[in-house]
């Protein structure tokens, strides 16, 4: 179908726009790699031993995600991004875990949207790859929420449901 009007609806997405959004996802994956590399080594205290070991596993999974995304961006004919989103640090272990949880929530919101966008473009294999990533991000989210002793946040509203972030 030859559509001349510009895509305004997120479901009416172009391949170029999808590549741009995947590059944003890639910058979040770089951010996650760095955060997990550092946090897994600096978290100290007996009560954080288990989660520190889990964060080391997360770091390696985030690298796999970055590789998968780079491949998809290249497939769409674009250059993969090279800059991580900023990484926050703290001396307080709880703060570090909270930063990670916030980032995972944001990542999950974005990947849920990305799957819909890939499918809208008929990129079903790409949607499947992102679904696999999303499953691991949800595990990360659960690991972090459990370590913090909080409920797993409900991020089902998609990237536009910003008000969910303000919830206690
Ligand atoms: Fe990831
Ligand atoms: Fe993650």
How much helical structure, as a percent, in the residues? 55-70%
What is the terminal-to-terminal distance? 46 Å
Radius of gyration: 17 Å
- Strand tally is 0
Helical stretch tally: 4
SSE string: HHHH
Label the structural class: mainly alpha
Strand content: under 5%
**Sheet with most strands:** none
What is bound: which ligands? Answer: fe (ii) ion
Q: Specify the overall morphology.
A: elongated
- Unreliable residue stretches: 1-7, 160-168
Averaged pLDDT: 89
Structure description:
The chain is mostly helical and 168 residues long. The protein contains four helices and no strands. It has helices spanning 15-42, 49-75, 93-120, 124-148. Helix 1 (15-42) packs antiparallel against helix 3 (93-120). The structure holds fe (ii) ion (FE2) (2 copies).
């Amino acid at each position: 179908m030859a559509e001349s009007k510009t895509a305004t609806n997120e479901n009416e997405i172009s391949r170029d726009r999808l590549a741009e959004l995947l590059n944003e996802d890639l910058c979040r994956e770089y951010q996650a790699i760095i955060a997990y590399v550092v946090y897994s080594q600096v978290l100290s205290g007996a009560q954080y031993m288990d989660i520190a070991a889990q964060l080391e596993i997360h770091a390696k999974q985030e690298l796999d995600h970055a590789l998968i995304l780079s491949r998809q961006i290249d497939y769409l004919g674009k250059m993969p991004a090279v800059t991580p989103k900023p990484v926050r640090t703290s001396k307080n272990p709880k703060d570090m875990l909270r930063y990670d949880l916030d980032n995972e929530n944001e990542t999950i919101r974005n990947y849920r949207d990305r799957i819909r966008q890939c499918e809208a473009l008929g990129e079903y294999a790409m949607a499947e790859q992102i679904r696999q990533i999303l499953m691991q991000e949800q595990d990360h989210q659960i690991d972090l929420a459990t370590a913090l002793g909080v409920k797993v946040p409900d991020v089902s509203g998609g990237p536009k449901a910003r008000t969910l972030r303000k919830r206690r």
